[in-house]
Specification:
Blueprint: E1 4-14, E2 22-27, E3 49-52, H1 53-62, E4 69-73, H2 81-94, E5 98-103, H3 107-110, H4 116-122, E6 125-128, E7 148-151, H5 158-162, E8 167-171, E9 177-181, E10 184-187
Parallel strand pairs: 2-4, 4-5, 5-6
Antiparallel strand pairs: 1-2, 1-3, 6-7, 8-9, 9-10
Helix pairs in contact: 1-2, 2-4
The protein binds iron/sulfur cluster.
Iron/sulfur cluster is lined by residues 30, 32-34, 37, 39, 42, 74-76, 104, 130-131.
Length: 188
């Protein structure tokens, strides 16, 4: 049976959501309610678009070698852990794409999830911890200083993290303007 994922948006190519040129998937739904959250439109589970692991995987394949990896952001990916993990495992098993995920859960919380071992084996890098507006950072993909970046393989180092652009503006083929990076995603 098809595994479904509720998503907010996806982008074929971004340089401000992880190292290099990456496809990005923003999942829809988050109950963590970080004060000052920069992406509140991603919270409501009654919004967004239903898709499947298979559809997302085939979309990633269609991008060919134009990307070096995929970033899963949100919303809160771990509140859709089963399909998100299935997608990540398939990417790891069948492609050479690198995998990076944002989560509002702390490392300590994530390590209690029964799927932590499988998740850690399917990710190259994880940025985790609640967004804390009182510790806001202005010039880094890490949006508040309490958050942690976990390097789960040797694909990336702090050097690549430090060199990710803070924000970007993309004009899509249909003329829509997308602003993404720290501060989430906004469509105009
Ligand atoms: S910052 Fe992330 S984890 Fe926190 S409420 Fe917003 S979407 Fe959820």
């Amino acid at each position: 049976m098809a595994e479904h994922i509720l998503i907010h948006h996806k982008l074929d190519a971004s340089k401000a959501n992880g190292p290099g040129n990456r496809a990005v998937i923003w999942v829809q739904g988050c109950t963590l309610n970080c004060p000052g959250c920069f992406n509140p439109k991603t919270h409501d589970k009654n919004e967004g678009t239903q898709t499947t692991v298979n559809e997302l995987f085939n979309w990633l394949l269609s991008l060919g070698n134009s990307i070096e990896g995929v970033t899963i952001s949100g919303g809160e990916p771990l509140q859709q852990l089963k399909p998100v993990l299935s997608l990540l495992q398939r990417i790891k098993a069948e492609t050479i794409l690198t995998t990076f995920m944002f989560s509002g859960y702390t490392k300590k919380e994530i390590e209690t999830f029964p799927q932590w071992l499988a998740l850690s084996q399917a990710l190259d890098m994880l940025l985790c911890g609640r967004y804390d507006v009182t510790h806001k950072l202005e010039s880094c993909i890490v949006s508040s200083s309490n958050q942690e970046v976990l390097f789960l393989t040797n694909a990336y180092t702090q050097f690549e993290v430090d060199n990710i652009p803070h924000n970007e503006i993309i004009i899509l083929p249909n003329g829509a303007i997308v602003a993404s990076g720290v501060g989430g995603i906004n469509l105009e």
